[in-house]
Amino acid sequence: MQEFDYVIVGAGTSASVLARRLTQADPQVSICLLEAGGLDRHPYLAIPAGFVKTLYGDRFTWPFSTSPVPGLSNRQLSIPQGRVVGGSSSVNGLVYVRGKRADYDDWRDRGNTGWGYDDLLPYFKRSETKIGEGDERYRGKHGELKVTDGPWRNPLCDAFIAAARASGIPLAGDYNGEAYAGTGYFQRIIYKGRRVSASKAFLAPALATGRVELRTHCLAQRITFEGLRATGVLYRDRAGAERTVRARREVVLAAGTVNSPKLLQLSGIGPGELLRDLGIPVRRDLPGVGENLRDHFGARLVARARDVVTINQLARWPRLGLEGLRWLAGQPSILSVSPSICYAVGPVNAHNDDPKEIRFIFTPGSYVEGKLYVLDSYPGMTLGAGQLRPASKGHVRIVSPSAADAPEIQPNYLAEEVDQQAIVSGLRQARALMHSPQLSRYFESETLPGPSTETDAEWLDFARRRGNTGYHLVGTCRMAPESDPTAVVDADLRVRGIEGLRVVDASIMPMIPSANTFAATLAIAEKAADMIAGKRSPPRA
Which of 393, 421, 444, 463 could form an S-S bond across to 306 if both were Cys, CB 3.0 to 4.6 Å? Predict the structure, then answer.
């Protein structure tokens, strides 16, 4: 079949939700999903601990790298994004965090009617089943995505939480409920020891209807048009043959913050000067396509621990064998935990009158210096710090008319002085937490950056040399009112000036939320599905 009601580019988080909801809304609908990656059947994608085996390389991800970043002493960072059915939800860090009410009210206040917290809450609730306790004013109990509180505990985590509380950060209840800031253990998309990706939760039941065709290993080349109306997608299949699939109703881009603007630009929608320089006919001059790229950025302190068993020891034989048996028996095990175990969110003073919120992420484990995800042989602990609402922003721009070429990705980390001040203050506070009385009985020595780092200049230099991406790219197809020159999509997520074309993924976010982006992306897709299906009223909250 080469014609469907909807053609969706991508089979990740957004596409999975769209497929599920559109098939529920219309018993006759037909949908084609074009996914550049393969099926999500590898055991590493199901076992939470498999995260360390899937995030890098090109088997399950787009192995993107940034351009040299001026604010990081011209370092280039690996910045992988999911390229597999389920997208980044199949390879991400498994934590579930919505963010603050103010994040979404800010979207609304920027002129995006219908995108405030109260507007999105019904969609957050619709997608989830919160296992265990949860205030039903805020938490869903009947959705496809199972969200759990991790049963695995470690004395180092408990000590970190106690240290955060002693510093003035309150103990959090349900941070996805009424109050966000605080400290505690992360909620996860792990159920019965296995990852609950968007494809498992939403796409699988949609495929079971027989009305969704999933085509894997298909790289979209460009959108096809009749005048200013999108009619389909030209793609290259696994054998290298070019094919076109047509959309009777709409084409929907759900390819992510890098690939959605890339495909728009390849199709002649984007900054006119860039497109003309590359020999691409300009169909619609939209300067904002690819701009407004934002990401979380952070740096980590590492310490050698004592008198405690950490993940470093549990991941080695013979203890690893016991952990495997515990996992098979459905008991708490390091095989069924997310890489980030617990957190604290609180303000730090960035040398001005506007304190910035920093999130601290604690893990009772540590990695060998310079070796990706190779655990140290001795007990260790890691504490990361990162600003939740960075001011620095960058761009995604194609470098040629070929879909096979990776685009230029420039996040411009630490370009703004306020971000520099915030990361220095956050790292200072992280050290104070590491040296707190609550952690002192387990703390042996700081191995990164080391005690010689003391001045603000030294802390900033450390962040520039050792800081890394939060993998939370957003904003490159920004939702904004027409009066905003950077606007790419309107409040219905329709590409401005083009008929039959929407973008539904994290790229539409006007501003980055104070959280991992998975939960917000689910809510975006839930709301978009109702808009596409013609439902103007949200489900009951």
Answer: 444
CA dihedral 446, 450, 451, 455 (to 10 degrees): -130
Same domain, 93 and 165: no
* Cα separation, 175 vs 182, whole angstroms: 8
24: exposed, middle or buried (C-beta count within 10 Å: 0-12, 13-18, 19+)? middle
194 and 94 Cβ atoms separated by less than 8 Å: no
CA distance 95 to 36: 25
Residue positions annotated with a catalytic role = 472
Residues 122 and 259 in one domain: yes
CATH code of 523's domain: 3.50.50.60
Q: Which of 453, 470, 487 is the last residue of a domain?
A: 470
Residue 134 and residue 20 share a domain: yes
Distance in angstroms (rounded) separating the CA atoms of residues 147 and 486: 35
- Pair 210, 355 in one domain: no
* 392 within 8 A of 415, measured Cβ to Cβ: yes
The Cα–Cα gap between 125 and 129 comes to: 8
**Closest listed residue to residue 348, CA positions, set 438, 265, 276, 456:** 456
Indicate if 257 and 405 belong to the same structural domain: no
- Residues 226, 323, single domain; the answer is no
Torsion of CA 426, 291, 251, 140, to 10 degrees: 20
Q: How far apart are the C-alpha atoms of 85 and 94, rounded to whole Å? A: 16
In this structure, which amino acid lies at residue 395? H
* Range of the structural domain that residue 94 is part of: 1-65+78-147+190-290+474-541
Q: How many separate domains does the chain show? A: 2
E strands, 335-478, where? 342-348, 356-363, 380-387, 394-397, 408-410, 443-448, 468-469
Same domain, yes or no: 387 and 492? no
Report the candidate in 387, 385, 339, 340 with the shortest Cα–Cα distance to residue 360: 385
Which phi and psi (to 5°) does residue 13 adopt?
-60, -55
Tens-level pLDDT at each residue, the chain (541 residues): 699 999 999 999 999 999 999 999 999 999 999 999 999 999 999 999 999 899 888 999 999 999 999 999 999 999 999 999 999 999 999 999 999 999 999 999 999 999 999 999 999 999 999 999 999 999 999 999 999 998 999 999 999 999 999 999 999 999 999 989 899 999 999 999 999 999 999 999 999 999 999 999 999 999 999 999 999 999 999 999 999 999 999 999 999 999 999 999 999 999 999 999 999 999 999 999 999 999 999 999 999 999 999 999 999 999 999 999 999 999 999 999 998 999 999 887 645 455 679 999 999 999 988 777 789 999 999 999 999 999 999 999 999 999 999 999 999 999 999 999 999 999 999 999 999 999 999 999 999 999 999 999 999 999 999 999 999 999 999 999 999 999 999 999 999 999 999 999 999 999 999 999 999 999 999 999 999 999 878 888 7
Q: Are 454 and 418 in contact (CB under 8 A)?
A: no
